[in-house]
Fold:
Amino acid sequence: MEVRELKTLLALMQDFGLVELEIEDKKGKVRLVRAGVAPSAAPAPPVAASKDIAARTFAPQASRGAQKSAAAANGARGAEPPVIAENQKLVASPMVGTFYRASSPDSNPFVEEGDSVRKGQTLCIIEAMKMMNEIDADAGGRIVRILCENGQPIEYGQPLMILEVG
Amino acid sequence: MEVRELKTLLALMQDFGLVELEIEDKKGKVRLVRAGVAPSAAPAPPVAASKDIAARTFAPQASRGAQKSAAAANGARGAEPPVIAENQKLVASPMVGTFYRASSPDSNPFVEEGDSVRKGQTLCIIEAMKMMNEIDADAGGRIVRILCENGQPIEYGQPLMILEVG
Amino acid sequence: MFKKLLVANRGTIAIRIIRACRELGIGTIAIYSTADKDALHVRIADEAVCIGPAAAEDSYLNIPSIISTVLTYGADAVHPGYGFLSENGDFAEACRRSGVNFVGPRARHIRLMGDKPRARRIMKRAGVPILPGSEGTGVSELKDAQADAKRLGYPVLIKAAAGGGGKGMRVVRDAHELARLFPLARAESEAAFGSRTMYLEKYLERARHVEFQILADNNRNVIHLGERDCSIQRRHQKVLEEAPCPVMTKRLREKMGKAAVRAAEVVGYSNVGTVEFLLADDGQFYFIEMNTRIQVEHGVTEMVTSTDLVRESIRIAAGEPLGMKQRQIGIEGAAIECRIYAEDARTHLPSPGVVTNHHAPGGLGVRVETALYDGYRVPVHYDPLIAKLIAHADTRALAIVRSKAALREYVIDGISTNIPLHLKILDDADFQGGEFATDFLKRYETAPPAAPPAIEHPTAKAS
Amino acid sequence: MFKKLLVANRGTIAIRIIRACRELGIGTIAIYSTADKDALHVRIADEAVCIGPAAAEDSYLNIPSIISTVLTYGADAVHPGYGFLSENGDFAEACRRSGVNFVGPRARHIRLMGDKPRARRIMKRAGVPILPGSEGTGVSELKDAQADAKRLGYPVLIKAAAGGGGKGMRVVRDAHELARLFPLARAESEAAFGSRTMYLEKYLERARHVEFQILADNNRNVIHLGERDCSIQRRHQKVLEEAPCPVMTKRLREKMGKAAVRAAEVVGYSNVGTVEFLLADDGQFYFIEMNTRIQVEHGVTEMVTSTDLVRESIRIAAGEPLGMKQRQIGIEGAAIECRIYAEDARTHLPSPGVVTNHHAPGGLGVRVETALYDGYRVPVHYDPLIAKLIAHADTRALAIVRSKAALREYVIDGISTNIPLHLKILDDADFQGGEFATDFLKRYETAPPAAPPAIEHPTAKAS
Structure:
């Protein structure tokens, strides 16, 4: 099918309260169902897709990718948001800065993957303007995955770790 | 189907209170369900809609309409193609020129609405470059409607009359 | 030259700066709020860093976050664009302290020109004509304002000492109005700038807003690039600008240009700047203020002088000398800029939403600066300026025709814009005759509706 | 001036002409085939008339239909653009006989310059240098061609006497090749132009294609507007053009310009025209042919000379005198035009289909001429030229950088384009150094695939 502006479609789906949208192409079939009608056990629209397509739309036609730094590649914009289970949550950075796993180069990391943590426990440090900002767990649980490398630049809102709650 | 302007279709859905819209193409099948209306035998697909949307897209934002002459307004592009029944056909102009209903200003028109015509009978004249080109009926039947005014400029392919065959 | 420049802005000016950097071989870092993740400036920059949530205070005005981005991602220069932090002395200073170049004047010049009564004093001393107004550091009490107004004679204009953008500005025609509106203006100033200090100026009924573009390098070479006429304003907000000013003479340009250069020289100014004047019917002109940044309307000057002001400002910030001399600057033809706002044509309220169809005009003499694209959602959080359409031609008459033709070709579906207003202006006989002042747009004002209408559903009118 | 002009063309040049008319206050009639009912030129013209079915022979090349439209819808001028009927003497004459102005030279000049051997003879007599080649009216038999080739010495170029656009053209390096390729070239000429008459020219291995823009009014005032370098060609089809030619000197420009003006003067030419030369390594130049219409690449000349060639051609056709003198023409900066074709990057086969996403670049010094819009279906029936991207800057180096940046911002999804090829050219060190000849693009030729691949489903890659 022609997915000319799926991103816009998705926005429109939201705007128009569509609960179902079916497109089958090679020039055939569309089905649109708005809310308030019976068949509504529709799954939530894949919001992430919207972003991907948006990103693709302006993908440079030449190989500008090479110029893109790790920043863009790793940033909230560039990367797929990690998929998490229902009992998991993402620890996101509240600021721009540099990610550190330990309080100093020769200290042990605050946490390792698999570690259990309690609410309020320091998970990592984001250095911003020479200030060391401790990022604490806002719930007890287990660190399932650490998503960033030590010393890596971090955007606002960038996922740092996956925490399994409970 | 052409999903190029699905978003516009969505706007139309809203405007017409559609809750469901199903299109399967290669010029076949449309299903439109309006809110509060029992799903019914859907009317014929509004084929013209696609063209209208295309035309609208670039509708000038200011009142350029005033500058548009009768040519544009009456042309194949500007006007709705007339709706015809299954046993009817359109007589379309094979050339650009001026439409005349009679062979000279003081002659009687070749045909009037309601007249029966036989195959090969002259229906009208298109004058192009001082040449008078007779347009003949390519089937016998009855002239249901004459779509153009005497002396009117005519585009290539512009519908001139509706002929009910048989 | 710089290696990597952080663009501390969004929208059309961010695009403009990124393009200029690309041509200078400078890498670019775009910053963006979470509301702007799909914005065009994010997409065309070499790198892009999310710096905070949608609210401007937490992102585009968030100095610590921006400086942290500079340090973490390794930029050696920052361009502030216009609006946001562009006239914030603290930001310029924070950049300097972080060892990064700020593309703009020194912090003290930003602060000096931001203090309007002080700038007036300096200009007066330097022999640059100013309007009669409050003396000293301004007034914050009604009784002082009343004394000033009495001395000046009505009408007078109340202005915020720390002001800009029309905030805290009121015209008063008698003592009664002054008593009523002074506290209102002061409250507005306090809300917008955190300052109760106001000043009064004699109000000219029919004057044009004429501003001179300044370029100054770090070695005190200062030139001007002629003027722009920005009289077409709605409530002190520019709507349409042009260069040259249609009533300018060579002699007057020389005189006003000299005053503008003097204004920059007297404070030791560097980088781009704009000296704004009121030009009265009798040919007298008066300094209003100096803007210490690139202006929205810089493009019209670029077209008629064949210069690249953003490029020049970056070069100057990198320590390079001015690339041209005053005598090399000529004015070729005429250029008009239409600011395209996402706003309701009738109410002037912002009209955010999804752009369901976008087609920019093009062709000879037509320049478009925009951050729009098909499917882009204009966010509610920021300035509604979505595009600038600049037409350049041999003559002003042709620039007007070219602007109109381009506006008619412009397709922006899904949201409302002020394109119809621009067409009205360009069709206006007085505008075409060059006969207008800052009150021009009042003729197209419609009374605001009783209650502000709900913002229209962005896609409703797409049908 | 004219009241209503019929644009006998489609695509970018139709848009260009409509815009020029709008600026001159002339109404416009677009014509279109049934395949073009949604085309942009149809949408932006004041009126639009469908003149026939998709096949060009039945619509854009259908003289009776076009003349009938002129008479029925009441136009007083016709602009042929380029391609289609632009160099058809019969069409120019049919316009004149119908009492309507043809924007272009007189029919006899079109026919004269269309007869290549005759044009060569006239130029030779007028003292304009020509390449050694066939004498008289050309050759149609192999034995005559063999005699000519022997006299000239190999390599030689076979050309169609009625030719253009690379059709019927072949380089031959020895008698054996001549025997093989002459009948082939002749057959091509017969198919394309209905003429078996060919002529031979000495072939220059490393020469540049340098052409001069001519403007002439009806009072025999002739000027030139400098040159364009169009050496970047693929199989005799121009791909990228620039002004000025990077190796041009002031002295050589004067000399070649004088020859070009002489070429127009000697036949009493009027309106726009282009005199094409080959420029050899040693600085010698040779007349190839004269194009009696506006060229695709006219925009680069407009940028560096600040003229509007389409406007001028319409003014001249309306009987107005030249608006400028030779000494007023200067060359400012450098301009590059990239022709954007809807073609497969590897096979160069046309790539028609629906444009699923369209975003044109913009900003300072960037001019886009296109008939594309978002959702437009590029038809299979016509030339694959879908856009021209023109970058103008102070220097050639900056024009190259600006072109590259703009090409990277250009989004045309759903169909393939030659944008990647342009980026390769602009990145090429020899191109950047100005060191290239008409054989330049051979280095980027890839062997054509064994079998032409099926044209990709236009939307397949959008998903």
The interface with chain A takes residues 27, 29, 32, 34, 37-38, 40, 42-44, 46-53, 59, 64-65, 67-69, 71-73, 98, 354, 356, 373-375, 377, 457-459 of chain C (CB under 8 Å).
